[in-house]
## 1
Amino acid sequence: MLPVASSGRAIVRRMSNVLVVGGAGYIGGWLTDRIRADGHEVRVFDVLLYEDQYLKDVDFVHGNILERESVAPHLKWADAVVWLAAMVGDGACALDPDLTRAINVDSVRWLREHFDGRIVFMSTCSVYGAQDGLLTEESPLNPLSLYAETKAEAEQALRAPMRSFSGSGRSTGLATRIHGSVWISSSTC
């Protein structure tokens, strides 16, 4: 049954092609299921850093976001990109700051420059650092780690003048699958 507008006419939504970059992670698994349930085509692009194989029954591309030529054809297919790919957690980021910046900032800047569709970007509450009181999207940023700094920089890159922007989100809350870096992260959320 199609949703109906107040005028009584059916609301028909165009099915979209959604590329979920970093979709094999703990947020990506749930999100992929949700996007499919909403009637969209999904393609997951992931390096499988924490997995040996991808088990969901969706179009899957094993690839590295640092190899731009492997990402580009999938951007042409997509109407929207959900960008979950990141080096996550203070410990992992501190091991190789240059690689962390390449993944967390440079790849997002590249995406912004090479994709005209809707971009959904997940950030982190770590960008706020330690602050008193209730935090909102308008709260001042105070990143205390390389991880938080790079996520804040990526947010800024997406806010820079561009053809289209759908917003960013900061990830907090419960998950059905815990990512290993969450246990060792010293980020303040």
## 2
Amino acid sequence: MATMTFLVALVIGVSGLIPLNTGQRRVVGRVNIPTSSVGGDSSLKTVSQIGCGTWSWGNRLLWNYDTSQDDEIYEAYKIVRNAGVTVFDTADSYGTLDLNGRAEILLGEFERRYQSEKQQPTDTTNQWWNLGNMAGNSQMADDQAQQVATKFAPYPWRITRGSLVKAAKESLERLGQSKLSIAQLHWSTANYQPFQEGALWEGIADIYDAGLCEAVGVSNYGPQQLQKIASRMQERQVPLATAQIQYSLMTYQNCKDMNDACDQVGCKLISYSPLCLVSDLVYIDVPAFAFHLSNSDFICY
């Protein structure tokens, strides 16, 4: 079931939602995943315009996850990677109870397994699903390593800047990696615990200064808070690359101001749940949705 779910999302994504005449492309047979530059003056220059979210990995409460599903999820992971997707959005809170952080663990394990398998010669000449053979090109064009964009939850006990740096180191340990592509604040606490907000901003900047990420981003921020944190990151000389919100046809009217806000501060908008949340999918008109998301300024998940 997991494999089919990811396949549907991938096929929709590569069949026209993102224009294929902009940016560089990695090609695998009939699949073209373009790359996009990110905001901010950072060492992270490009990411794949189509990414993969990992909210369900490790979540028993909402997604009925079980560790027995890991091999099937990995098969879906391979399909996404083979298509040229490099960027994976995750969070240190993805996973429930004893599985907290499970998504990051799986991302690290899956990438190591994926790279190991790529080194092993395999004969896929007679496999009908081999996209490379369809176009007479069996060479996988995925030359880039996995790019992890993880989000740090502003738990009530994370009230110091050092606690966020500690969280980043713990995420990297779970991933088995030395550096994040993007370190993100999961949401703003300005409306319910405003004194914590400043510590979070300093902490995310400290993560960058410590060399633990290539750029920083925010999630679930509105235009006003985005302007404020962008100003502080500029003072700290920390590249603010992305702002992530739920952005789809169902939320467009409420979220369109973020387009201008991102342009003003020089970051890119990440759209999570671009096909809407599962309960809303029945209302989607696919051709209209495809037209709407043809804007190359969006990095879509």
